[in-house]
Structure formats: structure tokens, C-alpha cells
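Appendix B, record 7
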Amino acid sequence: MWELIARFFGQQPASKHLAKERLRLVLIHDRASVAPQVLEALKGEIIGVITKYLDIDEQCTEVSLSRAEGSVALVANIPVKGLKRQAQA
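C-alpha cells (predicted):
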């Protein structure tokens, strides 16, 4: 919660926290046996599908793996700018 408030007011998280978060992500990737190239390919495909229906901010899109309740979860943070009009079939 405090991290969100700090980001809102423009404060950057401490380098210790960033290093800890990076290490956590590396460990999760190792446990899930997913190569970084596979995760990037997955991210690209997810973005490709979502952009058919939504206008998104691709620069701020984050896709990662996290540990949740004894398993590994795919977490996607995709900022949505708006909906696209569907082409009529």
C-alpha cells in the first residue's frame, strides 16, 4: 500500500527493494522452468490477441510469473486506454 502511495507522489522505491524483487522474479522463473524468451513470446501473443479488442498502452504492459498458493501464476498488468469498435461479420 505504501509503495503505491510513494509511486503516486513520484518517489522511487529503494534499490534494495528493486534488487529483492528482481531476485524473486528470477527464482520464480527458475522454478517454473520458463526461459525469458518464452515469457517474451507469450507476452507478444497476449498483446496481439488483446489489441484486437482493446486499445492498450503496450509500453507499460508487464507480464510476469509469480508464486501464489503453492503454484506459479501468470500475472499480466495491461493498461487499457479504451475499447475498439467490433467489425460486423
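Remarks on this record: Strands lie at 54-56, 62-68, 71-77, 80-83. Helices lie at 2-8, 15-32, 36-50.
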